[in-house]
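Mods, move this if it's the wrong board.
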Amino acid sequence: MYALASCLGQLKWLWFRRRVAYLIWLDRFSQASTAVGAVQLLFHLVYGGLWRSWACLGALGILGLLGTGLFVQNIVAQSTMTTISGGSAQIRVSRYYNLSYDGEHFGEETPVANMIASVTNGFAQPFVDLGSPMVPGELMRGAYECETSNCSMGLYSSLSVCPVCKDISHKIQTSDDFATLPDGSLSLSTNGLFNITSDTHYPDPTVLSPAEIGPLIVHYRAMAWGNGNITPIAVECVAYWCISTYQGNVVSNSLEEKVLYTHTDNTTSARTSYRQTSDIIIRQEQCWLSNKLYIDQQICAFVVVAKAQRAIQNFLAVGVLGSPAFLSGWQVWFGNSTRSKTTSVAAQILGDPCSIVDGDLSLCNKPLYAGLEAAFTNMTTFMTQAVRIGISNDAFNIAHGNASTTAYVFEIRWAWIAYPASTLLIVTAVVAGTVLQSRGEKSWKLSILPAVYHGIRDLNDEDYKRLVTPAQMRYEAETMSVKLDLWGEGLLWRTVKDR
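Not the wrong board. Structure tokens:
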């Protein structure tokens, strides 16, 4: 930019040395080192038919240099390249779940601690977004290993707990004092806020089709009202055993899992019953492990031991050794509760989606239903992670992946060089042309000072006195033809009457 501005300064004087021109051109050349001035000079050169000149090319160069920064910054592109490092990468899956605590007698089994924690935390988890339970990857921290913090786990199949829910609010029968389901399984008084119940029986097939349900774990129903101020709502859900096929990646040491599809056994022979003694076996024609597809009846058989099934059902729906079932017998009225821990859970499920003021939930129909369903769905998500985390580390309960490293790669984008290169050629040509034209001149003049020190000899004092304002000077300059000539040992302006 400096070299080009210098050349335009010299071309300004050469312009008047080689031709007779209006004095206004002195001003146009002086401003040409700026973007606006370059546009004005270029316009007057082209409009005046003087475009075949070094000054025209110089003005183009000034404008071209303004945009080179963007192109120069994009010549070198930075990208990342992922390479397999050979480091350790693995994640837990579950093909065989058998964890429980024995009771003194048959049927008194209880779940292990991490399953109990998953159920209680999952059901009572505060919901930021009722439609999106906690990301499973956050629950799996500690159950996967990625040596490089970035790993591809590929595809893998694992035992899971799947939910399905239906809105059954239309089945509720109401009176002045009560809302109840037709079979009498669930009711709520007008001052009631919340009530749930659960059992181990399959639901009415007209509500939840058997085709949607695999080996049953628990059958759940919940109702919410609100001091009689809104229409009561109810939801019916089941949790059942299934096989989920995942695609997993660890990015910056954080697991990202996506469920590609699920499979279950919904045949009559796979239906469960409370206190059954036979194991639950779900077979899949093909399954994934360590990103490898297996077609093997033994590998693709996923098992829940009967004792572990009884333990989970005891805790969720039946109760054992005098302890109430977690999902049964809860009722919350405005101001009190049948069980102390119910109030805090109800506050999470009912209080997060809307504010409970004096038992009035009149603005909360839709969020309330979402809360009742999300509580159950979130619970099954937590249970699935407990099933995967709690198993042994044998070869078929671990899925292996690939650890990768990320390297930065710099690439020259040749197409982005064209613009800066062409601009550089213009600048080089202007500099060379100016130097060649300036041969024989006494000095290289860059500034406007010669116009100050070399006066116009043909103007007398009276002519100068009448040029008071810049507007008057500009008007005079647009009509006064001048030329810069040698005068003695220096240069001096002279006016030319006839061009």
